[in-house]
Every structure is written in structure tokens, then in C-alpha cells.
Amino acid sequence: MKVKTLAKQVATILGVPFSTRGFHETVTYIAERIENGQKTHVVTANPEIVMLARENRAFQSIVEQAYVVPDGIGIVYAAKWTNQPIRERVTGVELLEALMTEANKHQWGVYLLGAKPDVISLAAEKLAARYPNARLVGYRDGFFRAEDEEKIVQEIAEAKPELLFVALGAPRQDEWMVKYRDRLNASMMMGVGGSFDVISGKVKRAPEIWQKLHLEWFYRLASQPSRWKRQLAIPRFVLTVLKEKWSSRS
């Protein structure tokens, strides 16, 4: 299969280069790259990730070299305010499920890393049942010591997964993947944050009506009040985008 030559499809939001491809186009693009042996590091970025990159130069450098998708309605609104062509969200958990569908179709190998021991084992069990033709070549929780990393890297390298999903939280998950990128033998690696918690059933995703109303962030805050400090990134993101927009007009 040959990857189509496409014009560069990037929109820059506060220094972060986002893909402007829609959800289905994104899945097709990543799948074609995997089929062609091209390695891809996917970052699912919401306003919190954008603000983190803005404040952390090392993380910003990682994001600049990755394939970044707009995970969060705040990114879509920011693109609209700055007249850039991002039309829809590409959420991490939905992208993971869509890529698992591709893995099921092509019998790709999949490795899962991160989350709590009970969460990752349950997520692995559910994904294996849901996508029986995908090869679950291994999984490991995220509570490991520095001295365990070499063994984990070797295990992943030997498994040679087409898909490597890592849930260690930002920016650690992307820093970890980039640190070992050349040794992991993974076709595509993607940080998935709390996706394993959702897949395992430990955390419930917002009902569809909340998603359609673009209030998923508020549902999560109401369900997990301890997230309030993290959610402060949203108003800071909005104010920073609008400030830059007004500054560019003056």
C-alpha cells in the first residue's frame, strides 16, 4: 500500500502544530503509515497539554516533532477563533479504539503500558475480547522503578508491536517514549493518558449528550473534583489564545 502524497495539513495553536485531518482521515493516515513501515509518535493534545508545552521547552520540542491531534473541543474553538482549519476533535480514547479496529483487521501486535495494575489488566482483558484478531503481545502497569525500565524496553522491543499505547500521564509518557524510541521497535506509539481507566470501566466517560454539548470537561470535573487544579488550564488557554489573537491585530 502506498501512502498518498498530501499537502502539509497543520494548524498552529500557541506554538503547537496540530494536524487538521478529521477523525476518519487521521485513522486512515496512521494505518497507512504503519502498513508502510513508517514510524509515528502520536500526541493527543488538549488545552492542558498545550499550556504544558508552552511552559516546558523540552516538552514543546517533543510535541513539535510528533503527530499532534486535537483532543479537546477547546482546540477546535481556538482554531475557529484564529481562522484555522480544525473542524473536529480526535479524542485519545476514540482514536485508540479505532486503531484497535485496524489492528483487529490486520492482525497487528499491540502492547499496553501504564495505569494501575488492576486497571491495565482489566483494560487488556476487555480489548483482547473486543478485538480477538489483534495480537496483544504484552502489557505492564505504570508503577515501575527506574531500574525496571531496561527490562520493559527489551520486552517491547522483542515483541515488535505495531501499536504501543502508553499511559503514564503528561509529559512523562511522551518523554519516556522519546527516550527509548530508537529501541522500542514500535511502528506507532501514542500517549493515552486516562484511556485505560475508561476502557477498563473504572472511570465512566461522559454520557453522549454531554459530549454533544461539548461539556465533557465539565462532567469529568463534576465526577472527579480533585481535577480542579488541572482544569484551570482551560481558562488560561482561552485567555492566552484570545490575547495572542488581539495582539496580532494591533
UniProtKB/TrEMBL annotation:
GO terms for biological process, alphabetical? cell wall organization; teichoic acid biosynthetic process
Which top EC class is given?
A: transferase
Keywords tagged on the record: Cell wall biogenesis/degradation, Glycosyltransferase, Teichoic acid biosynthesis, Transferase
Q: Please provide, alphabetically and separated by semicolons, the GO molecular function terms listed in this UniProt record.
A: N-acetylglucosaminyldiphosphoundecaprenol N-acetyl-beta-D-mannosaminyltransferase activity
State which Enzyme Commission number(s) the record gives: 2.4.1.187
Q: Pathway, per UniProt?
A: Cell wall biogenesis; teichoic acid biosynthesis
Cell wall biogenesis/degradation: present as a keyword of the record? yes
Entry keyword DNA-binding: no
Q: Which reaction does it catalyse?
A: UDP-N-acetyl-alpha-D-mannosamine + N-acetyl-alpha-D-glucosaminyl-di-trans,octa-cis-undecaprenyl diphosphate = N-acetyl-beta-D-mannosaminyl-(1->4)-N-acetyl-alpha-D-glucosaminyl di-trans,octa-cis-undecaprenyl diphosphate + UDP + H(+)
> What does the sequence similarity comment in the record state about its family?
Belongs to the glycosyltransferase 26 family. TagA/TarA subfamily.
Q: What does this protein do?
A: Catalyzes the conversion of GlcNAc-PP-undecaprenol into ManNAc-GlcNAc-PP-undecaprenol, the first committed lipid intermediate in the de novo synthesis of teichoic acid.
Query: What PANTHER family is this protein classified in?
Result: PTHR34136, UDP-N-ACETYL-D-MANNOSAMINURONIC ACID TRANSFERASE
From the Swiss-Prot or TrEMBL record, give the protein name: N-acetylglucosaminyldiphosphoundecaprenol N-acetyl-beta-D-mannosaminyltransferase
Q: What is the organism of origin for this protein?
A: Brevibacillus parabrevis
